[in-house]
Amino acid sequence: MRKIICIGESCLDIVFEGERPVGAVTGSRIINAAAMLARLGLAVEVVSEAGADPAGDRVVKFLAEAGADTRCIDRFTEGRTPLQLYTDATGGGVDVTRYADYGPADFDVVWPRVDDSCIVVYGGYYAIDSRTRARMARFLDNCRERGALMVYLPGFLPGRESRITRVMPAILDNLETAHLVVARGEDLRLIFGIDSDARCYADHIDFYCRSMVSVDPACRHISYFSGHDVTSVEIPADTCLSLHWNAGIVAGLVSGIVASDLRPADLDTPGADIRRDLLTAAVASLTESWQRKV
């Protein structure tokens, strides 16, 4: 069975409706995608950090109960597992307020073994933060050299980095390492300042990575760009309201890669059948019960 290695930041999301908290769930696209993939019976290893505190216990238990291997999660003792509050924004939408304290802890994770059948999912702020970037970049380079299929998820909360120029070199390095980029429309606008996903792919992504899946809830579609080709699939209208639907799309794409036994070379020039099959797998994942809002 092919192993999926998911590298991402662990946190706990606390969701409010009005002034009242209605639930707490494990956060981050990558961590939730890891749990979703493990629930499908796939072999998943999670590389992350969690404080030795109740929030960290909850995150690790959530992953373990899903069936993911959590041996590569560092449980740091000085500091706290990050918390994110989801509250109603003035004028509509959602505000996210983040509280994090890693203390003096270094990024002291144990890296899993990698071979050419592995799929590595990475991204978010972990992949660009100066605290984690150096060790993570060496591991990602090693994964690519060993023939693993690399899936990059760019994007982070705008408040975590006020000047995009500081982290752009790391973002470009991550794009060059990737065989598939999975990007939300708001991530592309934040990083590249472009509203059009097609133009963003042509101007900034295609040079580094030939395959990009763009997720745009406003337009109710996800699109697969490769060279001059593009394939789009509509998103069911009600799924965009679910809390973890972006994670569901990532899990669907990766499970589709496993089901079709795709390799890096297949994503360099993917045909229409591959593009359509992966997008269909991504949308199909959004109907599962774990995709519903808290």
Task: Reconstruct the topology from this structure.
Layout: E1 3-7, E2 11-17, E3 20-27, H1 29-39, E4 43-51, H2 54-66, E5 69-76, E6 80-88, E7 94-101, E8 119-123, H3 130-145, E9 149-153, H4 164-177, E10 180-184, H5 185-192, H6 197-205, E11 211-216, E12 221-226, E13 229-234, H7 245-259, H8 264-268, H9 272-285
Parallel strand pairs: 1-4, 1-8, 2-6, 4-5, 8-9, 9-10, 10-11
Antiparallel strand pairs: 2-3, 6-7, 11-12, 12-13
Helix pairs in contact: 1-2, 1-7, 7-9
List keywords for this structure.
single chain, 294 residues, alpha/beta, 9-stranded mixed sheet, 4-stranded mixed sheet, 9 helices, disordered C terminus
Q: Over all CA atoms, what is the radius of gyration?
A: 18 Å
Task: Name the poorly predicted regions.
Answer: 288-294
Q: Provide the β-strand percentage band.
A: 25-35%
Structural class: alpha/beta
What is the total tally of β strands? 13
Any idea what the shape is? globular
Number of helices: 9
- Listing every helix as H and every strand as E from the N terminus to the C terminus, the arrangement reads EEEHEHEEEEHEHEHHEEEHHH
How confident is the prediction overall: mean pLDDT? 88
Distance between the termini: 32 Å
How much helical structure, as a percent, in the residues? 25-40%
Q: Largest sheet, described in full?
A: 9 strands, mixed
Q: Largest sheet, order of strands side by side?
A: 5-4-1-8-9-10-11-12-13
Assembly state: single chain
